[in-house]
Amino acid sequence: MAIVSVGIAILILVLLVTWAKLNPFLAFLITSIIAAIMLDVPLDTIPRTLEQGIGGLLGSLAVIICLGAMFGKLISTSGAAQRISSSLMNICGDKYITWALMLTGFIVGIPLFYNVGFVLLVPLVFSVVYQTKLPAVYLGIPLLAALSVTHGFLPPHPSPTALVPQFGADLGLTLVYGLIVAIPTMILAGPIFAKSLKNIDSKPLKTFTPKTMDEDALPSTFNSFVTSLLPVLLIAGTTVLPYMAGEESSAFVTFIGNPMVVMLIALAIATFSLGLSRGISITTIMDDFADAIKDIAVILLVIAGAGALKQVFVTSGVSTEIGDALKSIDLNPLILGWLIATIIRICLGSATVAGLTAAGIVAPLVLTSNVNPNLMVLAIGAGSLMCSHVNDSGFWMYKGYFNLTVKDTFKSWSLMETIVGVVGLISVLILDQFV
């Protein structure tokens, strides 16, 4: 009966988001209270349970996500993203233009959250369209596939970063495995798939004609690339640091390897290299940072709401029942996590909400089985990207920017996202044989 109540709670969440059009944070809170009542959590403890869930999940993530948002904002406003794009175009040339756009989406997408990366980079795609006269969809899909991959698989993006502590995974290893999974996934869903889209007619709206910065106002190529990749380099570096340092330096290694410290170091270096050293005032930089926090406030609230619902499951004891029930299903746990995330993604639309909701359901299985928690983060990330359709804001952003019909949006965007989800899962399952 308890598991049935969980199913009803998920259905209520879906209806509140899709039918009632409630903000996901409010939907999570209402669903959490209803679920707590159905699961016989004492009424006087429900508020404390929700607070515990919100604080427990946000406590380890809020700083990382906020620092990541500031870092991404600086990459955008400094012109580093534009420099990376133009440099890769020059290196790859017209023959490999789709590969250059894919690499642009991947490198710039690491520090930028998805919606920000979309709004920033799609106009750059259109500038290439105007220069080369090549089809817009053919050029855009490789970049957007790379953006989707970074969004679903790589810290410090919200969903993978939030799943790491829930599963007891390691942020550094998740990033390393995520990079391994990301490369074949974005190649197949990007440049290779894009070859089949040359006949889709797209006339991007003139509203989205890019306004580019002058070349002499941009940071150097070296500065742009190295600074943009700092979070990846630092997180990967601190993953191998414990194996290189002796026991006497364990306290320092623990400190320097903390994700919050890593992001703070990356932001401090970027503030100097992309900002202060180039004559940008500290006031301007801080104003941009304030705008960045506003941009991700909704994401933080969604994570908070998901934490509340998860805590209801834990406090009521239904998490244990869910774990036992999932263990009895004769299916690879990684496939099971992917499938649950896929179903929720199809129902709700939001990849972040799908990933966090699926994590709350699958977490007991991860903690009680021998499944690799780092790979479970990636499997759920792949599932959360599946089958984007009309209830996903990304679907309509893509349709609007590229000025496509709904049919062509399904043929290009929805199929690309599905390829990312399927190839991502296959890559995770292959990697599971070796780690």
Structural features:
20 helices, 435 residues, mainly alpha
Structure explained in plain terms:
This protein has 435 residues and is mainly α. It has one domain (80-301, 319-432). It is built from 20 helices and no strands. The chain has helices at residues 2-18, 24-38, 46-77, 80-92, 97-109, 114-132, 136-153, 158-167, 171-194, 221-228, 230-244, 250-256, 259-275, 282-316, 318-327, 333-348, 351-368, 373-383, 393-402, 406-432. Helix 5 (97-109) packs antiparallel against helix 6. The longest helix is centred in the C-terminal third of the chain and has 35 residues, at 282-316. The radius of gyration is 21 Å and the shape is globular. The protein starts with a helix and ends with a helix. It is a multi-pass membrane protein. Its main location: membrane. Pfam families: GntP_permease.
* Share of β-strand residues: under 5%
Order of helices and strands: HHHHHHHHHHHHHHHHHHHH
> Taking Cα atoms only, what radius of gyration do you get, to the nearest Å?
21 Å
Please tell me the total number of domains. Answer: 1
Tell me roughly what share of residues is in helical segments: over 70%
The number of helical segments is: 20
**What is the residue-mean pLDDT, rounded to a whole number?**
86
Structural class from helices and strands? Answer: mainly alpha
